[in-house]
Amino acid sequence: MTAEAPAELTLPEEWGEPRSRTVIWHDPLITAAGALERSGLETLRALRDGVLPPPPIVALMQMDLVAVEEGRVEFSCLVDESVYNPIGVVHGGLVCTLLDTVAGCAVHSTLPQGFGYTSIELKVNYLRAVHATSGPLTAIGRVVKPGRRVAFAEGEVLDAQGRTVATASSSLLVFPLPGN
Questions:
Q1: How far, in whole angstroms, is CA 71 from its chain's centroid?
Q2: What does DSSP assign to residue 94?
Q3: Using CA atoms, how far apart are residues 19 and 68, in angstroms rounded to an integer?
Q4: What is the pLDDT of residues 32-76, one digit of tens each?
Q5: SS3 breakdown of the chain: % helix, strand, coil, rounded to 5?
Q6: Which of 29, 66, 151, 153 is the most exposed place for a label (fewest CB within 10 A)?
Q7: pLDDT digits (tens, 9 = 90+) for 118-141
Q8: Would strands 164-176 and 115-126 be described as parallel, antiparallel, or unpaired?
Q9: Helix, strand, or coil here: 173?
Q10: Domain ranges (residues) in the chain
Q11: What pTM, to 2 d.p., does this model score?
């Protein structure tokens, strides 16, 4: 789907004017290289403090890392109609991505330099619909059990009124990065 119609296509008047949102990001390899030089906690603090550029997904999903400590992270996420699904609510995939992000980053905050992670499993429970008026959302990730091969984390997404809109539990594979 595109926000702009081809010149030969006439859109129905009732659709109104097309809307748009511009996404700007930095070279993700700069962030990846910077992460190789730091522990997970140091990397996340560098991202939070603007020492390293945020990964592109952060700009695309309008997320922001607002707090980090070992085993716990907090992100905020702006929601607007650009992430609506066909039934007029925020797509569950955005909420799922937010939960995957906070679970992964919580685990990342426990890892030494030279180690990475990837999601093995993510179970999400959606508790209430999210609308553009629900946000900004707050997502919190916590490590349940750190590990050298597999780690476990949980996440929660809250709306602007502090109501839980979704929860998740996650299993993550921990591995040495190439060259380590």
A1: 16
A2: H
A3: 34
A4: 999 999 999 999 999 999 999 999 999 999 999 999 999 999 999
A5: 25, 30, 40
A6: 29
A7: 999 999 999 999 999 998 999 999
A8: antiparallel
A9: strand
A10: 24-176
A11: 0.91
